[in-house]
Amino acid sequence: MRKTIYLIVMLLTSVALHAQQIQPTFSVDMVSHYMNRGQDLGNVSLQPKLGLQWRGLSISLEGNTGFTHQDYEEMDIILNYEYKGFKIGLLDEWGEDGASTRYFYYGRSTNHQFSAHLGYECSHFSIDTYTFFAGADYKADGSRAYSTYIEVGVPFRWLDLEWEAKVGFTPYESGGIKTQDPDTAIDFFEYSFADHAAVNMISLRATKEITVGTYQLPVFIEAHSNPFTQNARIYVGATLFRL
Q1: How far apart are alpha carbons 234 and 204 in whole angstroms?
Q2: pLDDT tens-digit profile of 81-96?
Q3: What's the pLDDT at 7?
């Protein structure tokens, strides 16, 4: 009996110690326009993030929500592990794109996109690779695309601002989503990245913490372009809350 009580106490103590090492992540960003991987996805948006971190392991729920029913809605579940700058993870990305908006649907026409993530980050640069392996990622002919997006970032400090320059590209034809215009009822195919190997994102962001009373408000301005689609935007954003 004493041994049983001792084991229970040791188990509860171990769980309590590990629980103390779990750190929550909580943040809310606001952007004047939603740009992601060279894609123009919407207007003024809130981008919340809620997660848990334990040592190098993290799980988070992230997304994007606009202020009207027409704005793009997104919810992502991200599992990630990081060790000495190396990162590996799995992502479940879901968004409303004008087709089926059912979240709990995982058939062939699902809006979910499942991808694997490999990356490395240090003080001089970062590189991240995402490859879709399931979900809404088909070529126009209906075959699986295994779309891949690679992004390289270089942070630096200049003129009392924190900067980051990024370049994103796909090494081959990506898949896309077949969407329908509700007004014309015409289906069309939209590539996730490009129809061949191409650079599909170039961005430059400058960040500055602005003092508002006793609160430090990180504000950024970003120029974001897509050479493949010949699209470009400049927008502003701020981290409203962060834990």
Answers
A1: 10
A2: 999 999 999 999 998 7
A3: 56
